[in-house]
Amino acid sequence: xxxxxxxxxxxxxxxxxxxxxxxxxxxxxxxxxxxxxxxxxxxxxxxxxxxxxxxxxxxxxxxxxxxxxxxxxxxxxxxxxxxxxxxxxxxxxxxxxxxx
Length: 100
Prior knowledge:
Layout: H1 2-20, H2 25-34, H3 36-41, H4 45-60, H5 69-97
């Protein structure tokens, strides 16, 4: 389970960096001009976190249960994305408190 926490930290960090930082603002604007779906996806840290969690689960294949692997990976993606969502909110609050 500790590995899932590590993956959630990576997920939160990546989703925050892509959706909130100035360096990725041109990419977000370009995506919004090209596609409504991708424009919204890359502007929502919680939404993007699910896709990042999916990629990380497919790469690292963490196991939660000894059951059917598809269900196991599905649960892992949801748990990682959910924990990352909390971490993402904390990072947003800290940035706003810092005045950035």
